[in-house]
Amino acid sequence: MIRAQAALPDDLAALDGAHAIHGAAARALAAGEEVVVVGCGTSEHAAMAIAALLRDSLATSARDARRIRPQQALDAALDPVPDGLVIGVSHDGGTRATWLALDRARRAGAVTAGDHRPL
Asked: Please, which residues have CB within 8 angstroms of residue 55's CB and are 6 or more apart in sequence?
């Protein structure tokens, strides 16, 4: 599957807002904060891949690498990140757990990405 989707990193980088999210992740790391990518179901798998891509492109140390991580959306909603960046992934744009995770993270003080519609 990975070989069949070799262009996926380039396709993701070309998405609207990808460069802004990458920049926000770089700023969070520079500030010593976390970058958490949340999703639910197959979107959680996508969150894992996105976190790995961010680690590959941004982490300059093992400490940075540990600060970039995926998290299941419902867990993130129940225990929100109080600072840093939280990126939401949803294939259909309507996953309630992902929206809750982004909302709770924003209320806790994190910057959020992927939440272009209200709850």
From this structure: 64, 65, 68
DSSP β-bridge partners for residue 71: 38
What is the C-alpha to C-alpha distance for residues 98 and 118, in angstroms, rounded to an integer?
12
Contact (Cβ atoms closer than 8 angstroms) between residue 39 and residue 88: yes
| This prediction's pTM | 0.86
Instruction: Read off the CATH number of the domain in which 21 is found.
Output: 3.40.50.10490
What does the pLDDT profile of the chain (119 residues) look like in tens digits?
Answer: 556 666 766 666 666 677 888 899 999 999 999 999 999 998 999 899 999 989 999 999 999 999 999 999 999 999 999 999 999 998 888 889 999 999 999 999 999 987 655 43
Q: Which domain holds residue 108?
A: 3-113
